[in-house]
Design a protein that fits this description.
With about 90 residues, the chain is α+β, with helices and mostly antiparallel strands. The chain has one domain. It has helices at about 20-30, 50-60, 65-75, 80-90, and strands at about 5-10, 15-20, 40-50. The protein has a three-stranded antiparallel β-sheet with strand order 2-1-3, covered by helices on one side.
Length: about 90
């Protein structure tokens, strides 16, 4: 299982951990800062998971816009698929 963290750019809000696209959607849609305003922008951080998934996260420059797709890829792709992308995108560019 891969665990990511959504760190709000709004310093008056607390971030949250998530492990699925549904979990991210639910938590991000309900998050408010200390003034009661919705939080919309996050930095996504890789927290826990397989080493190859961490390398894939870095290679793909995963962000708020792509984290849900990344979580799907981690579950669906084979190790060979991940290695090919890491080399093609992360190492070669």
């Amino acid at each position: 299982m891969t665990t990511l963290f959504a760190q709000p750019y709004d310093i008056s809000a607390n971030g949250f951990y998530f492990e699925s696209a549904e979990d991210y959607q639910e938590k991000s849609s309900k998050l408010l800062n200390r003034y009661g305003e919705p939080v919309e922008e996050f930095e996504i951080q890789f927290i826990d998971g397989e080493g190859i998934d961490c390398d894939l996260f870095k290679a793909l420059s995963s962000s708020q816009c792509t984290c849900e797709k990344f979580l799907d890829i981690v579950e669906e792709w084979t190790e060979d698929d991940k290695i090919k992308v890491i080399i093609a995108v992360g190492e070669i560019g």
